[in-house]
Please model this.
Amino acid sequence: MPVVIEMVSDLVCPWCWLGKRRIETAIAMVPDVEVELLFRPYELDPSIPAGGVDYKEYMRKAFSSPEAKERSGAMRQALIDYGEAEDIPYRFDEITWRPNSLDAHRLVHWAQGQKKGAAAKEALFRAFFHDGRDIGDHGVLVDIARQIDLDPTIVADLLSTDADVVTVRAEEKYFREVGITGVPTYIANRQFAAQGAETPEKLARFIRHAAEHPPAESA
Model:
């Protein structure tokens, strides 16, 4: 029985890109354990309007005090340093727009159905944190779909509707109701959880612990 790891994350969360790379490294560190990695949606700020908002203005409001600005600067530098070690090219200065991430989560949902969830996550993280693209824009999402070999016409048609909005919202609601308040969070077999972009070594131990304590079979 594989260990099912559900990574709950947001596509506008820089720690989540780091967390994705680290969980993938952790999985490679336990080759004797079969792991199925699934990506689940979480919006850090679902109040963002559908069209998004100016990024710099949003960040000014979010980190308005001198102390908060200092923390934000330190966090960015830490991410840049961690990113260099993980070959993640953060370019925060390129970001000009803070999108609503719902439609990006819909794209991941569709990609995951085609076994391309990891490719979609990686492409979306890179588009936002390296290229400074608006991943709430349907044209950008269709272009990313094309990059990962999803049918861009089908994706464009789906994005023009409310397809799977209810499904994605329901998943988000579930994870909030079970107590997740920060991402990335990893859930193994719906039994064990680890939160934060932990080191690959710690995540590998987390995976092995889950493998050694499988869910009880239903009677």
Notes: The chain has a mean pLDDT of 96.
